[in-house]
Amino acid sequence: MSSPAGSEGRSGVRHLVWDWNGTLFDDHVAVVAAVNDALAALGAPPIDTDTYRNHFTRPVQRFYEQVAGRPISPEEWRMLDDAYHDSYHAWVERLALASDARAALTAAEAAGLTQSLLSMWRHRELVPLVERLGIDRFFTRVDGLRVPGGAGKAEHLVAHLAALKVPAAAAMLVGDTLDDLQASRAVGARCVLYDGGSHHRQVLEATGVPVVDTLTAAVAAAAPAPGRRPGTVRHTPAR
To answer: Lowest mean pLDDT: which of 3-7, 63-67, 191-195?
Structure first.
């Protein structure tokens, strides 16, 4: 059952910013497998899903230091980052959208909300995948990570909203991590957290923001009041 959306979920929202990994894209199994391949390159033991949920944080380098039990040098971090993405890339063709992702995107469109996609996955790999999955038409902008790194999402959300010319107060971020919430709060946007596997449910609920089990429930939390005129969508994908 979804947590109550409360008053935070409705007033003034006209744009949804979707997270990708663990939200629209159902890839938690691949993420944990890729983390273990990266840890193996470091000579560290593998972790299970529960350990991942207990420790996942950003910057991602801090996460690896926690599970490895020691500091990680800049050279090791670059090796880890490459090993992770190489492993993850091998999984992509076997992965799919979350079960109700298309329904949620369609519902948001029908409700008159404009939508965009902001991911911390590599931009050059994200854009063609979104297009291959046939959902690019829903987004006014698609942004992934253009430089190596694993820092937080806040600065990227600032740039993303600025490029869209969407005020933060009119936006809601739908994501699955505490970093998504921190980014939203940093810029003054609303947030709905989706229980996609990155954290234990009780950790998400402890934040006090709406927590949902489905993406369609996230849209329902943001949907405008009946009678609102649908927004005009101008597609300006970033490449």
So the answer is: 3-7
